[in-house]
Amino acid sequence: MAQDHDSGPAHHQGGAHDHGHHHGPVQGHGHGDSHAHTHMDFAQMLPLLVQEAELFTPAYVQAAEWLREQRPDPGLIVDAGSGPGVISGLFAEKFPGARIVAVDGAEPLLVEARARAERLGFADRFGTIEAELSDGIGDLEYPADLLWASRSLHHVGDQRAALTGFVRSLAPGGTLALLEGGLPTRFLPRDTGIGRPGLEARIDAVHDEWFTRMRTELPGSVAETEDWPALLTSVGLRHTATRTFLLDLPAPVSDEARAFAVTALTRRREGLAEGLDAEDLATLDRLLDPDDKASVHHRPDVFVLTAMTVYVGVKPE
Questions:
Q1: Fewest CB within 10 A of the end CB: N or C in the chain?
Q2: What Gene Ontology biological process does one annotation of this record name (predicted)?
Q3: Model's pTM, two decimal places?
């Protein structure tokens, strides 16, 4: 499976909802074409998932260090909906004594995760399981002490059932860290000097409609109020903490951040075209035209700003 948001970072490392990083056409993580289809092929999104997760690493580092304060010495960490394993690698670095298992439904992404583990030198304590999160997280050698699910749960039709499966895989006293919610990613000032001000807010409104359709079209879809602490409690966990992590890459941005802004806005243009009016589409076309000095390729005022919220629940001893 994957973050985009949908910009997200996976599937997976990605995306938040509220509706920030779902893996959708809007935030980088979805398979959105001109008809705004809600099916996503995450394996095709591999370069984007890696690009986003690496750019968003400062926020993930903060989240991992915060989790280490609460759970200092886990023996087994599971990255549920791991995508290409960028965050798995971060956990391997921050928890040098832990074994890491990446779980994803897309084998090509797990191949990339294993290659990354080799490159970064933690392959001896890294494993992968190919499994759809709707079916749980497959067969673990032993229960997880820390289970991380970053913007993967909202791609499962019955989120409560998936959480119940996560809890079954946790050791007594084990910790579940769920990254959902947060805020949409922003790249541009409200008034860019071209088109009507407020373009990104209007894109977000169209994306929210897309996200709702995506959820209802998932197999076994169950409507759920997005009160994540209440959901954690409903599956038998004790909600112990919530914290939001800011990613703030102010202008002038790096080439990598600028490239990500182009990628994300291009996905929005492609995936949400049917919901945007002609003026906003024309504005997006200018913003994405590398020959236009007012485009994201050249503007000095491009930034990357987003917020990702992590909810923590602990399984009773």
A1: C
A2: methylation
A3: 0.88
